[in-house]
């Protein structure tokens, strides 16, 4: 009898070990599937993830080749692209209703910013997310349950630290025409958001809206600052040209050209 009990116990242990190994091996695929399944209904744009390598034991890992597409009507191929996102998840929370993420570190993202009428691509994405959040808050209907299934909002989320560093902004459309080379590779200020979803239940869509809202403000602020630099440089060029008129038209042309050249990274001759 002992022999059969030991055999049975061995089978159970082997089964448990096999299950754990399978979870470890497939956790990355599960995260990739979740991102690509739940992302588009939230943002109403294409969302892709190249791969995810996460250890279920430590909760640490890397997401590679993240892609957030632009809404319809915008010409730039993407809104955000990032080669590397490092994450650290509280593994004890994975089986609970609230998933706790200790840190998300977004390294060197490329942000594509495009104006269209009175809005831009990020405001449009945030509006899409807010519409999703509003739909989630309608309680007691079958539609709500369907939406929860579509967006993964049955779970709430807490993000202790969301960090963005070394980002750059590329301008598109009329903005690129106005800013020229200066509109490619504008530095994005570093971002550090803390305790998202800590004090109240927060769905993934609500967390995403909060993060993108902050990102939109920082992108707009950076673009506005470059616009001020452009205005100041043109003003100085015009002032220099006016003074140079007395000295000859040729020197006036040099003054204007030199100032604008300096704005866009060239040296004044």
What does this structure look like?
The chain has two domains: 2-223, no CATH class; 231-263, no CATH class. It has helices at 2-43, 121-136, 142-151, 174-179, 204-244, 249-263; strands at residues 47-54, 60-68, 80-89, 98-107, 110-116, 119-120, 156-165, 168-172, 184-187, 191-196. By secondary structure, it is of the alpha+beta class. The longest helix has 42 residues, at 2-43. It starts with a helix and ends in a 6-residue tail after the last helix. Helix 2 (121-136) runs antiparallel to helix 5 and helix 5 runs antiparallel to helix 6 (249-263).
Descriptors for this entry?
single chain, 269 residues, alpha+beta, 2 domains, 10-stranded mixed sheet, 10 strands, 48% helix, disordered C terminus
DSSP helical segment count: 6
Q: Which class best fits the helix and strand makeup?
A: alpha+beta
Gyration radius over CA: 25 Å
**Gap between N and C termini, in Å?**
95 Å
The backbone outline, from C-alpha atoms, is globular
Helix content: 40-55%
The largest pleated sheet is described as:
10 strands, mixed
Strand fraction band? 25-35%
Tell me the domain tally: 2
Instruction: State the low-pLDDT regions, or none.
Output: 19-25, 139-144, 236-242, 249-253, 255-269
Q: Can you give the mean pLDDT?
A: 74
Reading the helices and strands in chain order gives HEEEEEEHHEEHEEHH
Q: How many runs of DSSP E, i.e. beta strands?
A: 10
Summarize the structure.
With 269 residues, this protein is an alpha+beta fold.
